[in-house]
Amino acid sequence: MSAKCPICEKPVAPKYRPFCSRRCADVDLGRWLKGGYSIPGEPAGEEDMQAAARPDSQRPREADDED
Ligand SMILES: [Zn+2]
Fold it and tell me: Tell me, what CATH number does 11's domain have?
């Protein structure tokens, strides 16, 4: 079984792994750098909504008890 792109779930391309294309790699990179920023033209998926929900945090939900 080959891995699937975490962005769009298409088959991963070796050149762009773990993504299927440079676009998806850029999408993922943009999320890390800008916290939920999405590339214009890229349809918003469930992962986009999850990222947008916590734009400034990369912490797991279990740690969401800050005061
Ligand atoms: Zn993809």
Answer: 3.30.50.10
What is the rounded distance in angstroms from the CA atom of residue 47 to the CA atom of residue 7? 7
How many whole angstroms from 23 Cα to the centroid of ligand 1? 7
CA 5 – ligand 1 centroid, Å? 5
pLDDT at 4: 94
Instruction: Please give the tally of structural domains in the chain.
Output: 1
59 occurs within a structural domain: no
Predicted TM-score (pTM) of this structure: 0.47
- 24 three-class SS: helix
Q: Is residue 54 part of a domain?
A: no
The strand pairing partners of 4, in sequence order, are: 11
Residue 17, domain extent: 1-38
62 Cα–ligand 1 center, Å: 28
Q: Output the CA 33–ligand 1 centroid distance in Å.
A: 18
